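Reminder: ligand-aware prediction takes two inputs, not one.
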Amino acid sequence: MSRDTPSVETAPTDRHGEALVSVRDLEKHYDTGVSLLDRLLGGGSNPVRAVDGVSFDINRGETLGLVGESGCGKSTVGQTILRLESPTAGSVSFDGDPLAERGDLTGFRRNAQILFQDPFSSLDPRMPVGESVRQPLEIHDWPWDGQGNPAERRHERVAELIERVGLSTTQLDRYPGEFSGGQLQRIGIARALALDPDFVVLDEPTSALDVSVQAQVLNLLADLQSEFDLTYLFISHDLGVIRYICDRIAVMYLGEIVETAPAEQLFTDPRHPYTEALLESVPRVDLQERERDIDPLAGDVPSPRNPPSGCRFRTRCPAVIPPDGLDIEQESFRAITDVRDRIADREIAVETTRDALAETTEGEPGEERVAARLYDRLVDVELPEPERRRVQEGLQAVAAGEWDRAAEHLRERYESVCETDHPTGQVSCHLFEQ
Ligand code: SF4
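Here is what comes back for the chain with iron/sulfur cluster:
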């Protein structure tokens, strides 16, 4: 869809509910070549899987929030949709047309804009702000209807935009350094709207602003959305901001979307354990709620070069599904699988333990004693029988140098569907697959 005459009076379309942006199985991998570690391990290059099979629609007039921890790939999704990054695989359609089939992306680039997080670095410090707002009009040779004097029309358009975002035309000749963060973000908004786009990616647009200014900018974005019939992809790590402005929310973890839901539903009835943990880790404004213990997300985010098998959240999930027939507390199951994984990765200091024991006893300690010491060091919860015995058997095999047998002994009994099968669906978790 292209427009010939951008105007602040653009009438809303009656096509709400139709997908304006459709993303299917989008991947963006960064191949950084073969590292020294790759070579030492005898393998090839291991790309960073920043975005790894993401699908969603954004309907006309809607704001879809994309939320997740830093580094989960959400900004890369926005940039790949806009073709600021080329996708490794997958497709993006805009207004029904796959971008890959459009030879010329000029029309799309006019119609799809981005507002970046940092208003200070997204404007040229040596250029008066009026020129920055005018620049897209010049690059795209606006006005396209051929009427009037182009320079005058652009001047009027810039003045119209700058006033609409709450600034004065007397400020157009000033430089970015003369404005506050909130004012600069308003100028960024005017620039993003210069060509009257249908779609805007808002990439953490308020994160760099003072809290007092954030609400003003969010209100402005909401007003502009209804006035110009805009469709937004709102990227943020801030759940409070996301809740305030978004209609639907997609939650990202390690390059994948794990849950998509209407905004209110996501906050009142989160389904995916990651969404729950993310909400749980947010400090609350409500006085009573402030008293509650905040449960921070446990563990580190794994490397996007080597994401965990099965469900990517399994290394931090507080609800990993034990194998059929194994009735066990989550804490105990986690302790067992931690030992099992350390055995599989040969990350247990057997010889150090044996040497330490030898110093306190006469002669070489037997495998049983080494295993018992390893057990004490590695398992800090009370395991029920027969699990305690089985873990000890595994450690005894380790003490005997039989690492593969030990790993297999524990894998046989403790392998979870969460690590063997990749979950799919609106809520990407095996707990919701029945
Ligand atoms: S699939 Fe398993 S590990 Fe992943 S979120 Fe669900 S319960 Fe947790």
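Confidence is low (pLDDT under 50) at residues 1-12. Residues 19-269 form a domain with the Rossmann fold fold (CATH 3.40.50.300). We will return to this case in the review session.
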